[in-house]
Write a structure and sequence with these properties.
Chain lengths: ~90, ~280, ~675
């Protein structure tokens, strides 16, 4: 339940905030919410696979953050802005 | 017990992320959520994940966030004006509906009795995880290692900037300044230093030009962005205040009293400006 | 054991119409002993082909030069080893009892689905044994011959690779225990044939001939593949054993269709009318290829197919009749072509067509004819390979000139070639005592017994054969010399004459297979047994009649060719019949009129329809899509968060749907 609430908050954050970094943080929040659910299920069912999955999620999140922030850096360097709405060249 | 204490804190912090305007504050609130999560892991028989959560998320990922934030400027606060029509309303509505549906859906599920991890964790949580990780999930594990290397490499490639021109020497920079002066009339000398009319920290006080106006270029851009620069009228008041005191103490001329009084008189003004 | 149940099966089988029983093949009979090496017979030439074609080009330059220099020895060795193995197998098979002479070997499961299960199975029985000996034996001799013939060709290694590939494919065709494996070999020999006909690809005529052979063969292959599909649909299997067991229970229409489709396949591969047009053009290939593929082995695959599928043909008189008709037409057609051609190889090719017509005729006659079809196939393999190689030897000595009108009086210049060629000649016209006499005589006898008209036409064919072979013989080796002054015909090297001598000996002695009716009894378990009926007139009279007709043919040729001068250029003021024969009896013209032109107009019509109908629909559709997308692309506003919103909406729908399903 807590996980669901956190996930929803993360979602709304992604939708409403414009600063790319904050949007990114909200994505992390969603990932963490999933992790929480995984760990809880691991305890529920008495096997460690859930924890392993959470661990893998963390690893992937770490990689994702590294790349995502690098992309934000690059965009900022060329456009002097960290707003997701400014990066809207890819349209009709 | 721990859960019921931590859960409201986490929800509050997460909501805070939504509503604070400054990215730094959002990051700090995220840290709160993550550390709380780590404690929840610890409670749920997952000491290994507890450690990893602290190290990876709060230690590494959040630090990266802050680091990048510093790089691209802390002044990058969100504007509250929504640019896409209907986006915010739709986002909130959809999010709420989604959350409601999730909550309803989850409440439909009847969970069995909690098995607990005592059996699985026999002989320690970390060895047990290692057992699974290096047997059943070994290929996934290897794949993540490849992923991490790729990510590191990718970050390097993305952040790399090719140097197209030779690095400017001091002589080059001096010549460039002269050119700028010749072509655009740009100020040749160093930037003016901050004013000396302050009572505690002169860096936030702009220097005054001969006509009495403040020289904006004499204070750091970051301070200007933070809004912690004293405004010219307030400074003028201060100056008048000091002048009056000097006039009042005419003749006796105790130099030691002057800074003391000015310090007391300046304090309220200072807080007012900060609030802005 | 399987062997026991097999023999029980044989004896307890219901008799088909006409009193001949349908033999069942039992491919699951266990191998053992030397028969375990059965797969090696195929694998050895395949390995040779792989080494010569696949590995050699990848070698570094110095090693590749060595491979180019000695590659032909490897190819020949592989073929020869295969022959030794075949001989060994044959001897072992002789040592077994008559009921144990069908040996199966399951190599692996090829593919497997719920209803279809095809194994890569080999079947080694009496029929396959004879074929194995023919292919590897004649094949090896031709390999040896080609060492000399291709000596100066820069791409000799590749040539031998192709030859090995052909041998491997042909052996697959023969040894496979089901129709799918047979089809694999069938296509393999088609490919090898294509590659070898077009081996001198710098000649446009060779490239065109290769394409023609390939395309016409495809027509036949469609028949075969449809037949296989029909077998899957009807019987659920294509194993010879399975099909032969179930064939009796299928309905007549299916069996007729199967028989005719298989006949179509056989026509394509064996150059029978109406798919005969490719064989004469195929002579563009190097002569060893003509000898091996287009005389001795590949073109007889159609005969093999009909004989092998006897369990189907026995049950469908319609298809059998069709086989007989096709065969009779072809044997006359080929013979007439042979009379008019001045190109020595094309004359021989016409003769090949005619002789295969004889084999098909025998195969169409049922169990009475099967053994003689195979018998004639073997003897024909010997003497026709002999004659083709002899022709190659002549061409070798005559600077690659193929026109018989430029030959003459070569018997002095090339004594060995002459003598060996003469053996083949005597064999093919059916000179008493030579191998061709025994085999052809038996076929005509059987034909006369079954149907007097067909029999008489076959006798007529024998007479024409005697005529054109004598003409060829006279124009090449006798009459006055007509070759150019600066040409010095010479005997070919030993490596080329040795195979000639061996094959000549076989041409003479091939008849021994008939001693004591051996081949009939040998093949009986495969082809079925039938009481020998007496011909309407006694066998001796038949033989005398055939010899008489042959003598007339020889005499006619003598009077027409040897007694008159042979002009160096072909005379143009000739009768209509000659012109028609020179033009392959207008085979290409018929193909053109019946198939190519209607095909072209059909394609033209389809193109128009495609442009108006299909393109119209497609373009209308695309402009509609374009219109819709013009409006829809407004959604693509470039804002990531809008996209995220759509994502969330989608996820929401998904969760709702899941909930609805679970709760509902």
């Amino acid at each position: 339940m807590l996980s669901a609430i956190l996930f929803t908050i993360g979602c709304v954050g992604v939708l409403t905030r414009r600063n790319a970094i904050v949007v990114f943080m909200c994505v992390e929040l969603m990932l963490n919410a999933c992790n929480l659910a995984f760990v809880a299920f691991a305890r529920q069912h008495g096997n460690l696979d859930g924890q392993i999955t959470a661990f893998f999620v963390m690893v992937v999140a770490a990689a994702e953050v590294v790349i995502g922030l690098a992309i934000i850096m690059t965009i900022f360097r060329t456009r002097r802005s960290a707003s997701v709405d400014d990066a809207s060249l890819l349209k009709y | 017990m721990t859960f019921w204490i931590l859960a409201p804190i986490m929800v509050a912090a997460a909501l805070g992320i939504l509503f604070v305007r400054k990215a730094v504050h959002a990051a700090l609130l995220l840290a709160v959520v993550m550390i709380s999560l780590a404690f929840l892991y610890a409670v749920m028989d997952a000491p290994f994940l507890f450690a990893v959560q602290i190290i990876v998320y709060t230690g590494a990922i959040l630090m990266l966030f802050l680091f990048v934030m510093m790089l691209i400027g802390v002044d990058a606060a969100d504007s509250t004006v929504e640019t896409i029509r209907g986006q915010r309303v739709m986002g909130v509505v959809l999010g709420l509906v989604f959350g409601t549906v999730l909550v309803i859906g989850i409440s439909q599920v009847t969970l069995g009795t909690v098995v607990g991890l005592d059996d699985a964790n026999e002989g320690g949580n970390v060895p047990a995880i290692a057992n699974i990780l290096f047997s059943r999930y070994v290929f996934a594990f290897e794949a993540t290692s490849a992923l991490l290397i790729t990510a590191a490499l990718g970050a390097m490639v993305l952040a790399h900037r090719e140097r197209l021109t030779p690095k400017a020497t001091q002589a080059d920079m001096a010549a460039q300044r002269m050119r700028d002066y010749a072509e655009h009339g740009k100020h040749l000398g160093p930037l003016p230093s901050p004013g000396v009319y302050a009572r505690h920290n002169a860096v936030d006080t702009p220097a005054l030009l001969p006509d009495g106006t403040a020289a904006e270029s004499s204070v750091s851009r970051v301070l200007a962005a933070r809004g912690t620069v004293r405004s010219a009228p307030a400074l003028a008041d201060d100056i008048d205040d000091v002048r009056r005191q000097l006039a009042g103490l005419d003749g006796s001329g105790d130099p030691a009293a002057m800074p003391e009084t000015s310090g007391k008189a300046g304090a309220p003004a200072h807080t007012e400006e900060d609030v802005k | 054991m399987n062997l026991l149940s097999h023999s029980v099966l044989l004896s307890g089988l219901p008799m088909a119409e006409g009193g001949a029983h349908v033999p069942v093949v039992a491919p699951d009979t266990g191998a053992g002993g030397v028969f375990d090496l059965l797969w090696l017979v195929i694998a050895l030439p395949l390995l040779g082909a792989f080494l010569l074609l696949g590995v050699a080009p990848l070698l570094p330059a110095s090693l590749r030069a060595a491979a180019d220099k000695h590659g032909h020895l490897l190819g020949t060795a592989m073929s020869a080893l295969s022959f030794v193995l075949s001989l060994l197998l044959f001897v072992s098979l002789l040592g077994r009892g008559a009921e144990e002479r069908q040996v199966g070997q399951h190599l692996w499961t090829w593919f497997e689905t719920a209803s279809i299960n095809v194994g890569f199975d080999l079947l080694y029985d009496q029929l396959a044994a004879l074929f194995l000996l023919l292919i590897t034996g004649v094949g090896s001799l031709i390999h040896v011959y080609a060492i000399g013939y291709m000596e100066h060709d820069p791409r000799r290694r590749r040539f031998f690779g192709y030859l090995n590939l052909f041998v491997a494919a042909m052996l697959t065709l023969i040894l496979s225990a089901n129709f799918v494996g047979l089809f694999l070999g069938w296509e393999g020999v088609g490919l090898a044939s294509y590659l070898l006909i077009g081996f001198w690809q710098h000649k446009p005529s060779a490239a065109a001939a290769a394409k023609k052979a390939f395309v016409i063969n495809r027509v036949g292959d469609i028949g075969l593949s449809l037949a296989i599909a029909l077998m899957f649909a009807t019987f659920g299997t294509t194993d010879f054993g399975g099909v032969s067991e179930l064939a009796g229970s299928a309905d007549q229409a299916t069996l007729n269709a199967l028989g005719l489709l298989l006949l179509l396949g056989a026509c394509g591969k064996s150059a029978q009318v109406p798919l005969q047009a490719w064989l004469l053009d195929a002579m563009e290939g190097p002569t060893p290829v003509s000898a091996l593929i287009h005389a001795a082995t590949m073109v007889t695959a159609g005969v093999y197919l009909v004989v092998r599928a006897n369990f189907i043909y026995e049950l469908t008189p319609v298809a059998q009749t069709a086989v007989v008709v096709v065969a009779t037409v072809t044997l006359l057609w080929g013979a007439i072509l042979g009379c008019a051609k001045d190109d020595i190889k094309k004359a021989l090719a016409g003769s090949t067509m005619s002789q295969i017509g004889y084999m098909m005729l025998a195969a169409g006659l049922g169990p009475v004819g099967y053994p003689f079809a195979i018998f004639h196939l073997l003897t024909h393999g010997f003497f026709k390979a002999n004659m083709f190689l002899g022709a190659g030897s002549v061409m070798h000595g005559m600077d690659d000139d193929v026109d018989m009108r430029h030959y003459g009086a070569l018997n002095k210049a090339m004594p060995v070639t002459f003598l060996t060629f003469a053996m083949g000649y005597l064999a093919i016209i059916g000179f008493p005592g030579f191998s061709g006499f025994w085999s052809k005589d038996r076929i005509i006898e059987a034909a006369l017994t079954e149907n007097i008209v067909v029999g008489l036409l076959a006798v007529l064919g024998a007479g024409i054969t005697a005529f054109y072979m004598t003409r060829l013989m006279l124009m090449t080796f006798f009459t006055e010399k007509r070759w150019a002054k600066d040409l010095h015909p010479h005997e070919s090297p030993k490596v080329m004459t040795f195979p000639l001598i061996v094959l000549a000996a076989l041409s003479v002695l091939g008849g021994v297979l008939l001693l004591g009716n051996w081949i009939v009894e040998w093949l009986e378990p495969v082809t079925g047994h039938v009481e020998h009926e007496n011909p309407p007139v006694s066998a001796l009279v038949v033989t005398a009649m055939i010899v008489g007709v042959v003598a007339i043919g020889v005499a006619t040729a003598w009077f027409l060719v040897a007694r008159r001068d042979v002009p160096r250029e072909a005379p143009q003021d000739v009768s209509f019949a000659t012109r028609a024969a020179r033009a392959d009896l207008y085979g290409d013209a018929i193909n053109d009129a019946v198939v190519v032109r209607p095909g072209a107009s059909l394609v033209g019509g389809l193109t128009t329809f495609d442009r108006v109908g299909v393109d119209g629909a497609v373009e209308g559709g695309s402009s509609a899509v374009g219109g819709i997308s013009t409006t829809l692309r407004r959604v693509q506003n470039g804002f990531v968060r809008s996209y995220a919103l759509s994502l969330l909406a989608g996820a929401l729908l998904l969760v709702l749907a899941l909930l609805a399903v679970n709760l509902g």
